[in-house]
Amino acid sequence: MHQVSDERHNLVFLAKKIKAWGIELGFQQVAIIEPDLNEASKSLNAWLKNGYQGSMGWMGHHGEKRYVVDKLVDHTIRVICVRMDYLNDNKMIAILKDNNKAYISRYALGRDYHKLIRRRLGELVSRIREELPNDTLSQRAFVDSAPVMEKPLAAQAGLGWMGKNTLILNSQAGSWFFLGEIYTSLALPVDHNDQPNQCGKCRACLRVCPTNAFPEPYVLDARRCISYLTIEHKGSIPLEFRPLMGNRVFGCDDCQISCPWNRYPAQSQETAFAPRHHFDSPALLDLFMWSEAEFERFTEGSAIRRIGYQRWLRNLAIGLGNASGNPLILAALKQRANSSTPLVLEHVTWAIVQQEQKLTPQTPTDPVSKYE
Q1: In what order do the strands lie in the sheet with 139-142?
Q2: CA 20 to 30 Å from 298, out of 75, 103, 273, 345?
Q3: What value does the mean pLDDT take over residues 340-364?
Q4: CB-based contacts of 312, cutoff 8 Å, min separation 6
Q5: pLDDT, average across residues 330-356
């Protein structure tokens, strides 16, 4: 009996250590849960049935591993959930209003978060193992990787609530943060934090979406989402969405910018997330003129690199087509048309038409006199 009591006491003490270590490693919130993804699994399967995943076929793979945690990592009974703020900028709206600038989703301005957070979580896993060197532990860290339902887990952990824009909202921090998880076989004491849904009647995120990507609150049709179109989608971007994309060339933050809970967002103290290469306010034309070697150099260590040079040019061509009429833009588009892949050429050709229409003087029609 004493042995069980001592073991429980040790785990309570370890849980406190884990949270302290997490804060020390740069996380703003750490919580431990006994995961329950039953309801989340029903929502996921309904979402997949509607085809809202688009070409992201991997969302339907792995079956129960997504929501039966011990089928992904053997003997998992707890999940350690963490939150790390990333916003390091406050001029999003100004860039969106300047159609000669390129808007890059704020999460991608600095270094790739996957590597940074994975390294920090790896350190946390190592510290746990050092505390229990004789125990056979089953543990694994995740950062937006593998079939992990991180948002439902974060909501259960009290890191926030699922907003109508399908992002986790936190009443103190807004939504500009990354999530990470550690699956573990340790029977750690669980937290009973709760952030009840505080969206109320607000529909700001739904109204502001440029492409009307929310068929209903709390449901995203990825096929209409600019983040999906510019990052995940590998082919031609449908004509109907091109004018609506404006200058958004990598991701979209409109539903976050408009959210009242982001009126006073938490600013990240993580220097790795600070904007690199002026990604917070670059000129569309400057980015479009990059060679492939320059793209590789300037996006080294960045999440932007994952889309590759051709999709980067595809997205920028749309942005240039939506920019104000400019002979320099038109010349750059025509120059690029001479040496483009079919994918890029299609979008460059579209952009050329848009620019030519803007640069062609419109002949005013003389009004017919009512006295004639």
Answers
A1: 29-33, 78-85, 177-184, 139-142
A2: 345
A3: 92
A4: 249, 250, 287, 295, 304
A5: 97
Mean pLDDT taken over the chain: 93
Residues near 249 by Cβ (< 8 Å), separated by ≥ 6?
102, 103, 104, 230, 284, 287, 312, 315, 316, 318, 319
List pLDDT tens digits, range 82-121.
999 999 988 899 999 999 999 999 999 999 999 999 999 9
Amino acid at the residue 124:
L
Look at residues 295, 289, 359 and name the one whose alpha carbon lies nearest to residue 324: 359
For 41, counting Cβ atoms within 10 Å of its Cβ (0-12 exposed, 13-18 middle, 19+ buried), the class is middle
Please name every residue paired with 177 in a beta bridge, in sequence order, or none if there are none. Answer: 85
For residue 133, count CB atoms less than 10 angstroms from its CB and return exposed for 0-12, middle for 13-18, buried for 19 or more. Answer: exposed
The dihedral formed by the CA atoms of 111, 22, 70 and 153, expressed in degrees to the nearest 10: -80
- The owner of tokens 């969106």 is 96
* 3-class DSSP assignment, residue 169: strand
The residue annotated as part of the active site, out of 89, 98, 135, 144, is 144
Catalytic annotation on 144?
A: yes
**Considering only CA atoms, which of 122, 132, 104, 264 is closest in space to residue 181?**
122
Average pLDDT, integer, range 210-232: 98
pLDDT exceeding 70 applies to what percent of the chain?
95
Q: Rounded distance, CA 236 to CA 346, Å?
A: 8
Amino acid at 261: W
The model carries a pTM of 0.92
The position carrying tokens 């824009």 is 165
